[in-house]
Amino acid sequence: MTGDVNTSRLLGLDALRDALLTTWRDVQGVAGEYGPNALLAAGLTLLYALLFVGVSRVAFALLGRLIHVDVHPIARRVLRTVLRLTFALLVLLSITALFEPLSVWSAAIFRVYLLLLVLYVGWGVIVRFLHVQADHWELDASLSVLLYNAVRTVWVLLGVYLVSAQFGINLLPILGGLGVVGLAVGFAAQDILANLISGVTLLLDRPFRIGDWIRTQDHEGQVTRLTLRTTRIRTRDNEHVSIPNKDVAGAVVENLSKGGTLRVSVKVGLSYRDDVAQARAALLPVLGNFPGVLPDPAPQVLVEELEESRVRLLLRFWVDAQGVAGYPVTRMGVLEAAREALTAAGLEVPYPQMRVQLGPPGEEAGPRAGG
C-alpha cells in the first residue's frame, strides 16, 4: 500500500507560492516605508514642471523685449538649457532628500549641475572661437565640419569623464578595455578605416572644395558634401553619387573649377579642297558672338592634324567659373553653329573616306593606250 503523493510539492507549486508571498511582503514593506515619499516626490516633480513652464514663458517674454532680434535665437537656446538643467537639479535634489539611501549623492548632483553649466558655456565660447578662426584662415565647409566634430568629441569625452568622477567612477580601466575591443574591430573594418583616413587626407590636402566641379576616372560632377567616409557629387544629369574616399584619394582627380576659367576645345573637319584661312574667318565670328564664350582670352581656330580624308581644325575658347557647370551644352552649341557657318561660307565638312584600289600595285585604272 502506497502513501498519498503531495502533487503540489512534487511540481514545485508550494515553493513558487512561498516565493510569491515573500516577494509580496517585501513589496508591501518597501511601499509602506517609501510609498509616501515616492508620492511626495511625484507631486514635487509635477509642481516643478508647472513652475518650469511658467518661468519659461515669463523669461522668454522678457527676453523678447530686452534682447536684440539678431541674438534672440541664441539667447533663447541658452536660457532654455539653463532652465532645463535647473529643473533637473531641483527634481534630483528633492528625490535624494526624501530617500535616506540617496542623500549621500546630493552634493555630487549639485557639483554635476555646476559642471554642466560650465561645460555648456565653455562649449559656446569654443564654437565662437572655431568660427572666428575658420573665417580667419578661410577654411572650407568640410574642413570646418571636421574640426568642429573633432573638438566636440573631445569636449563630450571630457565632460563624461568629469561627471563620472563626481560619483567616484574611474573610467580609465573601461577606456583601456575599449581600446582592446577597438583594435579588434579595426581589423574587422579595414575598409571603413581606410575611407576614414582617406577622408581626413582629402580634408587636409584639399584637392577640391564644396561646390567645385571635378572629374574622376568614372564620374564627373559638382562636389556637394565631403564626409569622413564618402565624397558626394551631383552629376550633370542631377544624379547624386557617393564615392568612397579611398577611391578618390587614390585616383587622378581633375578639378574643373580650381583655376576659375576653363578652356574648351571643339574639333571640326575641313576638306582638303577648302582654304583654312577662309574657314578661320568664318568660324571666329561664331566663337566671338556665342553666349558664354569669353572674349579674353581670345578664341582660336587652329589646325590640329592632317588626317587621311580631312584637315582637323581645333576651336579653342574659354568659359568663366559659372559656365563650367554647363560647358558641355556650350560645346555642343558651338559645334552646331560651326557647321552652319562653314556650310553658309560654301566650305565642306567631309565625312571619313577610304580609297580602295583593285589590281597590282602601280597599275593605273582605265583602258590602256594603243591597239
TrEMBL record:
InterPro entries: LSM_dom_sf, MscS_archaea/bacteria_type, MscS_beta-dom_sf, MscS_channel_2nd, MscS_channel_C_sf, MscS_channel_TM-2. It is a multi-pass membrane protein. Keywords: Cell membrane, Membrane, Transmembrane, Transmembrane helix. It is found in: Cell membrane. Its main location: membrane. The chain crosses the membrane at residues 38-60, 81-99, 105-130, 142-163, 169-189. GO terms for cellular component: plasma membrane. One of its GO terms (molecular function) is mechanosensitive monoatomic ion channel activity. SUPFAM superfamilies: Mechanosensitive channel protein MscS (YggB), C-terminal domain, Mechanosensitive channel protein MscS (YggB), transmembrane region, Sm-like ribonucleoproteins. Residues 191-258 form the Mechanosensitive ion channel MscS domain. Belongs to the MscS (TC 1.A.23) family. This is Small conductance mechanosensitive channel. It comes from Deinococcus budaensis.
